[in-house]
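Section 5: illustrative case.
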């Protein structure tokens, strides 16, 4: 809701809890100068982080891909996220863990000797999309902006530079839509601006394969697991936008939004009954409850 504060009181910066409003990073930080860094966003339910280990493993993979050495082991970062949630007395929240390469010996792109990464963790109250949106879906568009080529800044790296997604998000806003689905440079469906995309076609649950050039979403992995266990036909592949437009159901996935149905994609309106999406939405909730024993609104 709109009454929630935008920023919470306590953040964690380079080893300690600090008042978030006064926390500061040097102007020569490479995150600011070059977008040189990575991040993760996790959800908490009833104060507990969901799938912290998976997110920290992905953070480590992103770090390795950009030759950045994480200054803290995953276990320490897991404790930090819990600490920030507790310090701010949050129940259902979104926690963001940001790592930049820090300050170089000189403000030059190649000057990475003796850098010490900047690590920031902050949290915001968040209980997911509005109930009406979970139920009825949101409108999205197919963006003209393409997802980065895998041989450019590979979308598998959860890079701090979100401008590609930002441009697609602005296209969506101009079209009066909530979000955008991006195609890869070869014209195959890739992912949302901050989510993966799924659709149901002739009863088969489809999602772009990793080869499409996407982030390997934690939620995507859970949904694929659940779908297979529930006996749905599942297909990861390369799909043209026509397949997505012809689908019976479509939804986005991310840790923040869980499974969010698409009511429309551009001019295409999807049917209001979403049997597969609904089953998977419930199964996801059950998974969260089983793991965290949450008493949140879930
Ligand atoms: N974004 N694809 C992109 C480009 C994303 O940014 C995200 C997550 C996902 C879904 O990943 P996961 O299921 O692991 O959350 C896919 C987070 C929520 C963010 O940017 O804050």
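Designed sequence:
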């Amino acid at each position: 809701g709109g009454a929630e504060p935008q920023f919470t009181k306590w953040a964690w910066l380079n080893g300690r809890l600090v008042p978030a409003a006064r926390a500061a990073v040097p102007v020569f930080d490479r995150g600011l100068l070059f977008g040189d860094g990575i991040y993760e966003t996790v959800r908490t339910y009833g104060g507990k982080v969901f799938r912290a280990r998976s997110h920290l493993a992905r953070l480590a993979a992103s770090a390795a891909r950009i030759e950045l050495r994480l200054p803290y082991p995953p276990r320490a970062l897991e404790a930090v996220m819990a600490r920030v949630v507790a310090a701010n007395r949050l129940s259902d929240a979104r926690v963001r863990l940001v790592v930049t390469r820090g300050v170089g010996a000189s403000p030059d792109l190649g000057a990475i000797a003796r850098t010490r990464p900047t690590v920031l963790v902050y949290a915001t109250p968040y209980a997911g999309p509005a109930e009406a949106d979970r139920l009825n879906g949101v409108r999205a568009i197919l963006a003209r902006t393409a997802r980065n080529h895998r041989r450019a800044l590979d979308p598998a790296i959860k890079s701090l530079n979100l401008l590609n997604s930002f441009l697609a998000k602005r296209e969506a806003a101009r079209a009066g839509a909530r979000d955008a689905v991006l195609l890869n440079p070869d014209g195959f469906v890739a992912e949302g601006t901050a989510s993966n995309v799924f659709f149901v076609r002739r009863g088969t649950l489809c999602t772009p394969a990793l080869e499409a050039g996407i982030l390997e979403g934690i939620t995507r992995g859970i949904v694929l697991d659940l779908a297979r266990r529930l006996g749905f036909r599942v297909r990861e592949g390369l799909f043209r936008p026509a397949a997505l437009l012809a689908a019976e159901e479509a939804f986005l996935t991310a840790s923040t939004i869980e499974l969010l149905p698409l009511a429309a994609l551009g001019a295409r309106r999807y049917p209001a009954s979403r049997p597969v999406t609904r089953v998977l939405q419930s199964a996801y909730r059950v998974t969260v409850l089983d793991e965290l024993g949450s008493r949140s609104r879930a």
